Amino acid sequence: MQIISGQARGITLAVPPTMAVRPTAGRSRKALFDSLGRFDDATVVDLFSGSGALGLEAASRGAATVVLVENDRRHCRVIERNIQAVRKTGVVTDIRLAEAAAPAIRFWSGAVPDVIFADPPYKESGEYWRQLLHDSAFLRAAAGALLVWEIPDTPGASGMFLADNPLEDYRLRQFGGTGFLIGYLPEAADVQG
At a CB cut-off of 8 Å and minimum separation 6, what does 116 contact? Predict the structure, then answer.
């Protein structure tokens, strides 16, 4: 797997050796990033980072701050190697790795993120969706951010995400064989709790 575009283009990323990680395919990742546009000076959070590919792609494309959130220590070691590989190309992005016991912790500080990527393990994706999007502290911390959620590849999976969906101006997009639900989290004034 490689960084597709930007300053670190062509850098090969390591992938954790477990079956628990299935990185977003290169073709799908390229189409997704091309559809999202520029990342100049953006603050990006990559939840369930796995290898860090989504966050590091954003770093390569000019994001100012990237926070990679992962709860498996073995995966964090792989992500650390990938961060170093990207930094060797001269990427000056503030890249931070947060080892999270649970994805709903307050893993970033400062500015509200511009973009949040979420690619949880497919089997737990629905549960994480419900957990995060009903967590008022998370919603306040991420108010107005663009959320990009990778949808499990099981038939009919998108229906569950669309039925319980607080996102504004959302769209379901298919890039290659991968589906994404993309939309804006409610503004802080709209968050209950």
Answer: 44, 45, 46, 47, 142, 145, 146, 147, 148, 185
Closest-CA residue to 2 (of 15, 18, 16, 21): 15
CATH 3.40.50.150 given to domain 27-101+111-186: yes
Residue entry with tokens 């790795």 = 97
> Measured between alpha carbons, how far is 149 from 144 in angstroms, rounded to an integer?
15
Cβ count within 10 A of residue 123:
10
Q: What are the tokens at 97? A: 């790795």
pLDDT in tens, 133-164: 888 888 888 899 999 999 988 877 788 788 87
Structure tokens at 187: 């503004």
pLDDT surpassing 90 at residue 72: no
Widest CA span of the chain, in angstroms? Answer: 45
